[in-house]
Amino acid sequence: MKHQIHRYPQNTTGRDFVVGDIHGHFSRLRRAMEFIGFDPSRDRLFCAGDLVDRGPESHDVLNWLAQPWFKSVRGNHDHSAVRWGNPDNAMDVSLYAQNGGAWNIGNTQPERLRFSDALDELPLAIELQTAAGPVGIIHADCPMGDWGVFVAAMEDPSTTRHLQKDMTEFAMWSRDRIKSGDSSAVEGLVALVVGHSTIVRPVVLGNVHFIDTGGWREDGGFTFLEVGTLSAQTIDNTLADLDAMDATQRETEPLH
Ligand SMILES: [Mn+2]
Questions:
Q1: Fewer CB within a 10 Å sphere, N or C end of the chain?
Q2: Rounded Cα gap, residues 125 and 49, in angstroms
Q3: Domain holding 144: CATH number?
Q4: How far is ligand 1, taken at its centre, from the CA of residue 79, in Å?
């Protein structure tokens, strides 16, 4: 992994949103963004990771990552695509296919490498400044109860490879907090925003916001958490998929 933590200053001209797992559903995400009035000239969209696999448009990830207003952390599926680009990878092909990697299995080695290189730029965590203080973004969970301790350990060159690996795995995979209902806070943050664990509606435990409401599933929707207010808005796919709806109807359609 090239970068562990990316830091962003406060957005003083527009809004910053965090969205959960996308899984190759970029067209649907774009429609959902219309409902929140996303303005790419002022607003920024941060993703909690898992940009690829399962959905029909994983290839589009390169176009999205090229947008200056779009940033993401690394999810376990993004990490798989990074590994897949390594010709010496020891990945189980049938398991990768089962987990939604079919789009990449058929790619040539140079194509695999393009996705691998692009996704290898994704950090394990993002620290985003807001007026109220820092907001953290990680795919699954923070491996430590204190953000500053976690960041320092990830960035300390004397941290053992073993501990680095354990923290990386936990950050991309853990579902412990939501399974146990642990409502302790992650110290040093206004909020930690995570995806990975799919839920029907956004959940807040302590200061940890779970926002993967399954925008990548037919029966789900994308949740946008605005970091300035920590208010979440979920756009159900039944609403976002109504792309036949004209602009007038769209303006009068009640949002929720
Ligand atoms: Mn995941």
A1: C
A2: 10
A3: 3.60.21.10
A4: 10
What spacing in Å lies between the alpha carbon of 229 and ligand 1's midpoint?
Answer: 26
Distance between Cα 187 and ligand 1 center (Å): 24
CA of 63 to the centre of ligand 1 (A): 21
Burial 132-160 (b: 16+ CB within 10 A, else e): eebbbbbbbbbbbeebeebbebbeeeeee
Question: What's the structural domain count of the chain?
Answer: 1
pLDDT band at 242 (very low <50, low <70, confident <90, very high): low
pLDDT at position 243, please? 54
Tokens 């200056």, residue?
68
Q: Domain of 185?
A: 5-252
The yes-or-no verdict on residue 78 having pLDDT over 90 is: yes
Asked if 89 and 139 count as a contact pair (C-beta separation under 8 A), the reply is: no
Q: How far apart are the CA of 120 and the centre of ligand 1, in A? A: 16
CA of 136 to the centre of ligand 1 (A): 17
For 157-213, the pLDDT digits (tens) are 999 999 999 999 999 999 999 999 999 999 999 999 999 999 999 999 999 999 999
Q: Tell whether the model's pLDDT for residue 253 goes beyond 80.
A: no
